[in-house]
């Protein structure tokens, strides 16, 4: 991928002013610098028909992390979009926001999406850049009614199923789908637990995840869809899955 370089923050004239150490010029530079950083850190890139603007107004993440995020975004969003929803947003902002206290989230409206990322999370877990892969799937999903017509557990389960399938280096983030089923797990536990169930179910019934995703996007998802797509209701599917996942543990334990 091309190396991304924001426009330089310090102009030669600004540097000279600072070096001459005039108190007034220094104060002026201090006032102007935050504005310069804000403008300098906007990076705009186009791949295929998708435009990405990366914005880190406070300079919270370094250049290497910015390139890693941008690379991961394009490398995972474009194939996800092609596979699941070619009509997904063509205009995406990635905003690095130190004031956001969660990990990351997506706001998706009218073909334009914003992915907000808390830089503190990546400071603590710099290998976890594939969180971008999960969030990119939320842009692709564009389901109406998160938590209403589109159940949260299934929306997040599909995003983690996709992170497993499309992620560039999940191992670097210590991230993996679980290979065992714990007693407290259910199909609707969400995130990785549901993602692992979806991966198994897709293996048994190829096309299942695409069928669920399509129905969710159309606002036509109902639990009966599992029976339509697999011939089994979801409780039966989960029971079969849980049995296959817990048997080896019992055999060795
Ligand atoms: Zn999510």
Provide keyphrases for this structure.
binds zinc ion, Zincin-like, 52% helix, disordered N terminus, globular, 5-stranded mixed beta sheet, alpha/beta, 2 domains, 5 strands, 253 residues
Structural description of this entry:
The chain has 253 residues and is of the alpha/beta class. It has two domains: 1-6 and 39-142, 2-Layer Sandwich (Zincin-like), CATH 3.30.2010.30; 145-253, no CATH class. The chain is built from ten helices and five strands. The protein has a five-stranded mixed sheet with strand order 1-2-3-5-4, with helices on one face. The chain is globular. The termini are far apart. The model is unreliable at 1-24 and 33-39 (pLDDT under 50). The site of zinc ion has 4 residues, from helix 5 and helix 6.
Task: Give the CATH class of the largest domain.
Answer: Alpha Beta
Considering DSSP H and I runs of 4 or more, what fraction of the residues is helical?
40-55%
Summarize model confidence as the mean pLDDT: 86
DSSP summary, beta strand count: 5
Q: pLDDT under 50 segments (min length 5)?
A: 1-24, 33-39
Tell me the structural class. Answer: alpha/beta
In brief:
The protein has ten helices and five strands. It is α/β, with parallel strands linked by helices and 253 residues long. The longest helix has 22 residues.
Annotate the secondary structure layout.
Elements: H1 12-20, H2 23-40, E1 43-47, E2 50-55, H3 63-84, E3 91-96, E4 104-109, E5 112-117, H4 119-124, H5 131-141, H6 152-166, H7 191-204, H8 208-218, H9 224-230, H10 234-252
Parallel strand pairs: 2-3, 3-5
Antiparallel strand pairs: 1-2, 4-5
The protein binds zinc ion (ZN).
Zinc ion binds next to helix 5 and helix 6.
């Amino acid at each position: 991928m091309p190396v991304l370089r924001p426009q330089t923050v310090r102009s030669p004239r600004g540097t000279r002013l600072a070096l001459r150490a005039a108190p007034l010029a220094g104060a002026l530079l201090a006032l102007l610098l935050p504005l310069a950083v804000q403008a300098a850190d906007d990076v705009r890139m186009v791949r295929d028909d998708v435009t990405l603007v990366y914005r880190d107004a406070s300079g919270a993440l370094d250049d290497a992390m910015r390139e890693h995020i941008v690379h991961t975004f394009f490398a995972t969003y474009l194939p996800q979009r092609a596979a699941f929803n070619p009509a997904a947003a063509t205009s995406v902002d990635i905003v690095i926001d130190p004031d956001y206290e969660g990990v990351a989230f997506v706001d998706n409206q009218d073909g334009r999406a914003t992915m907000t990322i808390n830089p503190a999370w990546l400071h603590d877990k710099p290998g976890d850049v594939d969180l971008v892969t999960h969030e990119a799937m939320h842009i692709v999903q564009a389901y109406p009614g998160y938590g209403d017509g589109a159940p949260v557990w299934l929306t997040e389960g599909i995003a983690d199923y996709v992170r497993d399938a499309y992620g560039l280096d999940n191992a670097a983030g210590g991230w993996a789908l679980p290979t065992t089923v714990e007693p407290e797990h259910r199909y609707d536990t969400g995130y990785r637990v549901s993602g692992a169930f979806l991966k198994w179910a897709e293996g048994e019934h190829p096309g299942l995840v695409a069928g669920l995703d399509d129905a969710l996007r159309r606002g036509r998802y109902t639990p009966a869809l599992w029976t339509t797509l697999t011939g089994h209701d979801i409780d039966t599917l989960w029971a079969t899955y849980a049995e296959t996942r817990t048997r080896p543990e019992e055999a060795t334990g």
